[in-house]
């Protein structure tokens, strides 16, 4: 199993069922040294643009992003990669709890 830190749509149970066919187990956690900001993206299914959330590294411990650590399989992680827009890239981070997890940040 893999740890995936989510601060956005992957925490939504409807999105989880559509993407993975199940609800994911998760626990609250915090990513230090990053800040949350907006990004405008075009929805692939509707063609409409909307505002989403994205994180950027700042290196400052006072900056933090609250989210959920989700437990996913390796194949589910690949599905999450395909789901995320090209504006995001997946990197490995250590969360405030000491857990290592993948997270999507600005590409």
Helix-strand layout with pairing:
Layout: E1 2-6, H1 13-20, E2 26-32, E3 34-42, E4 49-57, E5 64-72, H2 74-83, E6 88-94, E7 100-106
Parallel strand pairs: 1-7
Antiparallel strand pairs: 1-5, 2-5, 3-4, 6-7
Describe this structure in words.
- By secondary structure, the protein is an alpha+beta fold.
- It has one domain (2-106): Hypothetical upf0131 protein ytfp.
- 17% of the residues lie in helices and 50% in strands.
- The strands form two sheets. The protein has a five-stranded mixed β-sheet.
- A hairpin with a 5-residue loop joins strand 6 and strand 7.
- The longest helix is centred in the last third of the chain and has 10 residues, at 74-83.
- The mean pLDDT is 95.
């Amino acid at each position: 199993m893999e740890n995936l830190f989510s601060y956005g749509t992957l925490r939504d149970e409807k999105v989880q069922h559509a993407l993975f066919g199940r609800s994911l187990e998760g626990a609250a956690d915090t990513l230090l040294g990053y800040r949350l900001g907006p990004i405008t993206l075009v929805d692939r299914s509707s063609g409409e643009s909307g505002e989403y959330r994205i994180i950027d590294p700042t290196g400052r411990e006072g900056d933090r992003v609250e989210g959920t650590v989700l437990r996913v399989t390796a194949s589910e992680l690949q599905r999450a990669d395909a789901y995320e827009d090209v504006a995001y890239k997946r990197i490995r981070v250590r969360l405030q709890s000491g857990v290592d997890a993948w997270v999507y940040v600005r590409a």
